């Protein structure tokens, strides 16, 4: 009896030991798999690029820095980086963004004027999937940031271009014609600051391109009760007042030029861009489908939709035609640095309106417009849910009904649309298509 009991205990212990050993081996195999998976996942698509003055001269083909040839629209996204990275977009969409945007501040009052670690992390994340990084810098002191700080930023961009092989579209001081930016309504200071930044970037790299990108000016000058900046007057700021009163009538109104006073000059601008959204509210009706032709009307500052927004544009002689003035006339590539149409979940849907109808109408207007505008080369969709006065969901990929339609429309377009996988870069700032 005792011998049988001992044998039973022996085999029980042996079995337990074997099971523990096998589970331990299984755990080690799983850990090795995870490490291998993560290593593969974190293997960059883009790699280091040697940047020097002799090999990396600016492209001589007549194209701007980071400008691809005409005929294909690069599709990108602005991300909520606290929730997503470009790899997540690749998982959702089946392709990596051709352009990925992030916002950062440049504040000379801080001991670290810009977040070097965060900037590096952003660029590294883009390198893992390929494509171009759109860096939207908000300068807190547009004309008083020291040359030393700007030089440090320019050299950092060069180093990141080189270390990770990621090209950068530097959208510096975006929406400078709006009252919600600290540098708004200050064209003299803005142009000076932009030019300083451009000159320093050009000293070090052609893989970073300068982007000048105001806000849509159809309803300029956007006076609001929550303004960060106020319009200058002849008494408070005679220099900027004179620059903004373009028709010389002694006041700044929608009859004045919403773009030109802020333009730094052809020599310093590689790309021109415009923040352009469908933004329904109580006036238009919440969760309204964008009217036919809305995107094109607003981009050109004419047509039924533009006049409905601002009847004063009826006789402006093309003053609000952003694409015509700054892309076509100057042969500058045009991008939508951020755009979308929201589903407002805090409001009910009415009739046959759906989230898909709202968003698909918008992206189809953009895709159609790009076919007729050869200099329209990038569209960056705002992939974020935001809460302001309403709960606005701007995302194209989050909804399981919207996402397949968004992807299907690109598939139908074939080679009309380009993603990160389709792009190749050189240190001279050239962008070509690999497929």
From TrEMBL:
<feature type="active site" description="Nucleophile">
    <location>
        <position position="338"/>
    </location>
</feature>
<protein>
    <recommendedName>
        <fullName>GH26 domain-containing protein</fullName>
    </recommendedName>
</protein>
<dbReference type="InterPro" id="IPR000805">
    <property type="entry name" value="Glyco_hydro_26"/>
</dbReference>
<dbReference type="Pfam" id="PF02156">
    <property type="entry name" value="Glyco_hydro_26"/>
</dbReference>
<dbReference type="InterPro" id="IPR017853">
    <property type="entry name" value="GH"/>
</dbReference>
<comment type="similarity">
    <text>Belongs to the glycosyl hydrolase 26 family.</text>
</comment>
<keyword id="KW-0326">Glycosidase</keyword>
<feature type="domain" description="GH26">
    <location>
        <begin position="54"/>
        <end position="406"/>
    </location>
</feature>
<dbReference type="InterPro" id="IPR022790">
    <property type="entry name" value="GH26_dom"/>
</dbReference>
<keyword id="KW-0378">Hydrolase</keyword>
<feature type="active site" description="Proton donor">
    <location>
        <position position="175"/>
    </location>
</feature>
């Amino acid at each position: 009896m005792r011998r049988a009991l001992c044998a039973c205990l022996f085999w029980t212990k042996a079995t337990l030991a074997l099971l523990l050993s096998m589970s331990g081996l299984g755990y080690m195999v799983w850990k090795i798999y995870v490490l291998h998976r993560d290593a593969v996942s974190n293997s960059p698509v883009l790699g280091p690029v040697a940047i020097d003055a002799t090999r990396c001269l600016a492209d001589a083909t007549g194209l701007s820095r980071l400008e691809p040839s005409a005929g294909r629209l690069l599709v990108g996204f602005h991300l909520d980086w606290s929730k997503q990275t470009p790899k997540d977009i690749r998982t959702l969409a089946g392709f990596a963004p051709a352009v990925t945007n992030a916002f950062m501040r440049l504040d000379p009052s801080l001991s670290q004027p810009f977040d070097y670690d965060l900037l590096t992390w952003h660029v590294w994340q883009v390198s893992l999937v390929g494509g171009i990084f759109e860096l939207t810098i908000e300068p807190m002191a547009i004309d008083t940031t020291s040359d030393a700080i700007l030089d440090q930023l320019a050299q950092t961009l060069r180093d990141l271009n080189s270390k990770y092989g990621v090209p950068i579209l530097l959208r510096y001081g975006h929406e400078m014609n709006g009252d919600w930016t600290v540098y708004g309504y200050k064209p003299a200071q803005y142009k000076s600051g932009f030019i300083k930044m451009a000159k320093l970037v050009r000293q070090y790299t052609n893989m970073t391109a300068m982007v000048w990108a105001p806000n849509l000016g159809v309803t300029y000058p956007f006076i609001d009760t929550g303004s960060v900046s106020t319009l200058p007057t002849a008494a408070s700021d005679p220099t900027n007042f004179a620059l903004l009163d373009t028709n010389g009538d002694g006041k700044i109104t929608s009859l004045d030029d919403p773009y030109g006073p802020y333009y730094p000059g052809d020599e310093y601008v590689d790309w021109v861009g415009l923040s352009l959204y469908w933004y329904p509210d109580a006036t238009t009706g919440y969760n309204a489908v964008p009217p036919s032709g809305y995107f094109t009307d607003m981009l050109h500052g004419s047509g039924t939709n533009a006049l409905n927004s601002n009847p004063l544009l009826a006789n402006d002689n093309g003053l609000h035609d952003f694409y015509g003035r700054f892309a076509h006339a100057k042969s500058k590539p045009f991008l939508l640095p951020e755009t979308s149409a929201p589903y407002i979940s805090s409001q009910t849907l009415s009739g046959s309106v759906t989230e898909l109808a709202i968003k698909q109408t918008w992206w189809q207007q953009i895709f159609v417009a790009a076919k007729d505008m050869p200099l329209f080369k990038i569209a960056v969709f705002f992939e974020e849910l935001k809460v302001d006065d309403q709960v606005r969901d701007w995302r194209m990929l989050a909804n399981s009904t919207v996402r397949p339609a968004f992807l299907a429309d690109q598939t139908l377009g074939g080679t009309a649309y380009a993603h990160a996988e389709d792009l190749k870069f050189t240190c001279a700032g050239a962008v070509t298509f690999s497929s």
